[in-house]
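Reopening this ticket.

The earlier resolution said the output was attached, but the attachment link was broken on my side. Pasting everything inline this time so it's all in one place.
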Amino acid sequence: MLGSDPDWESYRLFATGEAGAIQALVHRCGAALLRFIHRCLGTGQPEDVEEVFNDTLLAIWRDVAEYDPQQARFKTWVFFKARCIALDRRRALARDKAAGPLPEITAAEFSWSLLLQLDLVWALEELGVLDRQIVYLSDYLGLDHREIAGRLGLQPGALDTRLHRARQRLRQVLASWRPRGVPEDSDG
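Inline output:
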């Protein structure tokens, strides 16, 4: 999988301990990682997002030897690390606010579908901003095409074409995703 991973250079820099590793990763996916962390934290303050972001970079630097390129893309592994750190921070924030701890995710509950979700986040970053908005409004919020076209100032035909092409691009990006050890007929 590493040979087909567009982030192999970031991984190589981390694996060899090169000084530019963190800068290269931040340049490649820093903005997407910050948005992802913000979503994981839910109601976190900007300083909480920054803290999780920095902790994630340190964890990647520290734990890069744990990464297995046969299991997932490097960026997927990075986002998985960020998710774990963000959820730990979210639980700490919840305890501080006396809102109670969030439920723990046990190893038995983990599935490959989580990695697929992270790869979907990565795949969405390959789309342009307008196409990401269209996919989000249509597939996540379930808005009808006329409403989306009105919100974004597009003609319905242009919206349909853009949505079709965006979904096609997502299929292409995700087509090769299959972690080793997951049976072809499994749903995860």
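Reporter confirms the inline version is readable. The chain has two domains: 2-108, 126-174. The chain has a mean pLDDT of 76.
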